Amino acid sequence: MTFAALPSPRLRELDLNSAPPRPAAPEAPSAAPWNATATLTLARELWALASPAIAHMFLITLVFLASRAMVGRYSSAALASLQISGTLTWLVYTLFTAFSSGTLAVVARSVGAGDRLGAASAARASLLLAIALGLLVALPLRIANGSLLALLFPHASAAVLADAGAYLHIVLPALPLAFVEAIAAAAFQGAGDTRTPLYVATLGNIVNVTLSAVLIFGAFGFPELGIRGAAIGAAATMSIEGLLLGALLLSSRSPLPLGGAAPERHRLSLARLGWGGAALRRVLRVSAPTFAEKLVNQSAYLGFVAMIGLLGPEAMAGNQALVAIEAICFLTADGFGVAAAATLARKLGAGKPDEAARAGWMAAFMAAAWLSTMGLVFALLPRLLVRGFTSDPAIISLGAQALMVAAVAQPFMAFATVLGMALRGAGDTRTVLGVTFLSAMVVRLVATYFFAFTLGYGLLGIWMGSTADWICRCALLGVAYARGRWRGVRV
Fold it and tell me: Lower Cβ count inside 10 Å, N or C end of the chain?
């Protein structure tokens, strides 16, 4: 296995109790004409980072898809239960891995400024934070599991709640390692290595698919565990990926000198890194608005899911199949967003804001083109795609109608996702927070209720509301990015 570590510049002695080094003075806005060679070079740079990140996200999606496809074939009640347990797991994971945005921004900015010791300190402090948060979150959620589900989803059937509780009982203890995986992946990506997270995700994907297939259906003499088998596969994947990626980040092959295996001339500086209090403050300064953004987004999403629950079990199962299908697109956009955030932050650290701006725009348009193609596939083959997750004719009919609406949303979702991640990479997380509040909490919830219940479109209206949200985000984030205030944000 090879690791795509960037060439290490000469590291100077650094006291991390002092203020972080300031980046070079920003360039003046450039009026230079379009340069085909420079544009092609930038596109190649973005693709070199984006392609492993997309493959990484695709493997994460494949875990998600494989689990839901197998559970859907096992029973409709088990598939509907994932609308509850899967949503809550993803909500907690997304919310508390918001700190990975700060990790990527600080690591990439430090690497761009030639300060790998500062980048290492930020990564180490973030890993410790991930472990602490994981333990603080997982334990109370596991204790409150059954009563919490009954409180949040009073209209769900007893069978659905029982399956959801069984899934969470197994998966929640693995959350601390899932947090570690997210932070370690962000540190690698910020340092320019998007391949190592891909290799680790490949192994995790193999483990998940194998365990789930054997344990859900009881193959090769193993007991038939149903939803519990899917949970064991997911928990094993979280644990393996967290342990392995964390160990690789601490190893001598890491692009960042975290593990004390740096050359002799750097040992004094490493000793002075300590717990990384100053670096952690930098990470938290960027991450705090992202945490608030995720809190707003996930709170709105809970309201969104609650409205789906009011439509009944068929709509819940149909929506779960649609989410699984669309996840391919969403996480592909995330891969382009990782490339945009890492490239933009490194170029800002190197004092090249004009190149940073071009990187964000280019990544956004590349993602929009890619997802527009996927939207065309949705529009041409809706019933075939939904049939891959369920054999119930009623669910297939509901899902196929809604997938036509999802096809329209894809380019808007791509553009908004990439520009949002680019702004986070620049450290302008407050702007993304404001846009998320307006789009998710106001536009999505109001539009969803109007289309699904006032007009009576049901599941189709749910996806119309979601599409309205993405169109709003696309417009607002595009305006914010074009205004360029993110260029002056201090990380």
Answer: N
Residue among 424, 349, 434 nearest 97 (CA): 424
Instruction: Write out pLDDT tens, residues 182-203.
Output: 999 999 988 888 889 889 988 9
Task: Return the structure tokens found at 266.
Answer: 């750097």
Q: Measure the N-to-C terminal CA separation of the chain; round to a whole number of Å.
A: 33
Torsion of CA 407, 410, 412, 418, to 10 degrees: 180
Tell me the average pLDDT of the chain. 82
Taking every pair of Cα atoms in the chain, the longest distance, rounded to a whole number of angstroms, is 70
pLDDT band at 312 (very low <50, low <70, confident <90, very high): confident
| pLDDT score recorded for residue 245 | 93
Of 399, 353, 406, give the one whose Cα is nearest residue 379. 406
For residues 281 and 283, what is the distance between their CA atoms, to the nearest angstrom? 5
Distance (Å, whole) CA 68 – CA 386: 12
CA distance 488 to 491: 10
CB 185 within 8 A of CB 105: no
Closest to 121 in 3D by CA, of 254, 266, 349, 276: 276
pLDDT tens digit string along 16-35?
333 444 444 444 444 445 56
pTM of the full structure: 0.73
* Contacts with 480 (C-beta within 8 Å, 6 or more apart), sequence order: 419, 423, 428, 431, 435, 486
